[in-house]
Amino acid sequence: MMMSDNIDRIDYNHVMTDESIKRIRALSQCTVSRQLMAEDAGINLETLNHFYDRIITQEIINCHARVGNIIYNQALSGNMTAAIWYTKTQMGWREKTP
User: Residue 41 falls within a domain, yes or no?
Assistant: First the structure.
């Protein structure tokens, strides 16, 4: 349940379980906001950040790496849309207007 008193304080009595870690990982991969993750877990944002920050950050990094790898491989295999997107977002290229 969401704490109604002291909502800005870390609940040091919170217990991370295998189930809660699995759920936070899944929500992180979907880029759900931390506020919504906290609400889903029934804890306040400060408690979420205290206990799950490293897990959330690592899952976001892993997700970005997987998606980036897909785009990169698509560009290398001849997908022009992926190649154009990659050059614009990663190499700083842009279209010039006459």
Answer: yes
